[in-house]
Amino acid sequence: MRGVHDCAVFGIPDDEYGEALCAHIEIEPGAELKADEVREFLASRLARYKVPKMIEFNNELPREDSGKIFKRKLRASYWEKAGRQI
Length: 86
Known about the structure:
GMP Synthetase, Chain A, domain 3; 3 strands; alpha+beta; three-stranded mixed β-sheet; 30% strand; single chain
């Protein structure tokens, strides 16, 4: 999808199902994206249950020294708010 530089998708706590999908998207400079646009794009390519419930936009995603996205840092705050361990 245009405007998406990179992304990370992971599980976050959900009261109804136990976990739900969350996507953090690193946007390209100057791009403007909306969560609904991303959901529509994904819904046309994935099964409905695979489309993230929550979508967050970031200018930059945290990375390990190797350059890999550091999902643990993204995921931690959601689990702490729910009072649960990762």
